[in-house]
Amino acid sequence: MNIKIVDLDHRKGEPLPFRLTLDADELKRRHHEIRNLTPVEVSGEATKLGDLYYVNGNMKADVDYVCARCLRPFRQHTEVPFSETFASEESLLADEEDSDIIPLEGDEIELIPLLQEDFLLDIPAFPLCEDDCKGLCPTCGVNRNEQACGCKNERIDPRLAGLADFFKDGK
């Protein structure tokens, strides 16, 4: 979906509401942690104030992941707010390279690539089913969220193993 700059210019500061749906298959292809995804519903508005064009709103979807610690599949409702600011290249100052203002190219604002990027940046790199997920035991492989195991998972750096014997003799 594209928003025409002319439409915003004629509205004289009044917001232009929009609704669209992002392609779930495209988003799933672009992020390896997404196992499945409902269509991403986008609602927002675009406004021109002064020389700047503002686009903001919210995206919603249910995303299926596999927990990075316990490998259990889970579904999470995701809401991603977005806010972008645009300006014509003539109104941008040359020394504002670090600015969050996006220069306009042409006579339309192309929303789909920006919204896809905002959504994908909000997806966790290591999704967890719960913040306090205990994960799998590295020795026996049991899910420590479901049952405790009696494995001794004490790791000692082999370079420091000699020190352990030193402290035993000192007691």
Low-pLDDT ranges? none
Shape: elongated
What string, H for helix and E for strand, traces the elements in order?
EHEHEEEEEEHH
Largest sheet: 6 strands, mixed
Mean of residue pLDDT values: 86
What is the structural class?
A: alpha+beta
Organism: Brevibacillus borstelensis AK1
InterPro entries: YceD
Protein name: Metal-binding protein
Question: Keywords for this structure?
Answer:
YceD; two-stranded antiparallel ribbon; 2 domains; alpha+beta; Metal-binding protein; 171 residues; 20% helix; six-stranded mixed sheet; 4 helices
Q: How are the secondary structure elements laid out?
A:
Blueprint: E1 2-4, H1 5-11, E2 16-22, H2 24-30, E3 36-37, E4 40-49, E5 52-66, E6 73-87, E7 101-103, E8 108-110, H3 111-122, H4 161-169
Can you walk me through this structure?
The chain is an alpha+beta fold. The protein has two domains: 2-133, no CATH class; 134-171, no CATH class. The protein has helices at 5-11, 24-30, 111-122, 161-169, and strands at residues 2-4, 16-22, 36-37, 40-49, 52-66, 73-87, 101-103, 108-110. The protein starts with a strand and ends with a helix.
